[in-house]
Amino acid sequence: MKLGPVTQFLMNDRAGKYLLSILLAVAVLVPLMNLTVPEGSALHVSTYTLTLLGKYLCYALLALAVDLIWGYCGILSLGHGAFFALGGYAMGMYLMRQIGERGVYGNPLLPDFMVFLNWQELPWYWSGFNNFFFAMVMVALVPGFLAFVFGWLAFRSRVTGVYLSIITQALTYALMLAFFRNDMGFGGNNGLTDFKDLLGFNLQSDSTRAVLFFSSAVALMLGYILCRSIVLSKLGRILISVRDAEARTRFLGYRVDKFKLFVFVVSSVLAGIAGALYVPQVGIINPGEFSPINSIEIIIWVAVGGRGTLYGAIVGAVLVNYAKTYFTAAFPELWLFFLGALFVISTLYLPRGVVGLAADLLEKRRSLGAGGGASVQAEPETPVESPQAAVADDSKSSKESEIELSTN
Amino acid sequence: MQTKHIPQSSILYLNGVSVSFDGFKALNSLSLDLKPGELRAIIGPNGAGKTTMMDVITGKTRPDEGDVIFNNSIDLTQHDEAAIANMGVGRKFQKPTVIESLTVFENLELALAGGRGVIASLFHKLQTKQRERIDEILTLVDLTQRANEQAGALSHGQKQWLEIGMLLIQEPELLLIDEPAAGMTDVETEKTAELFKEVSQKHSLVVVEHDMDFVRALECKVTVLHEGRVLAEGSLDQVQKNEQVIEVYLGR
Question: CB-based contact (8 Å) between A7 and chain B?
Answer without folding.
Answer: no
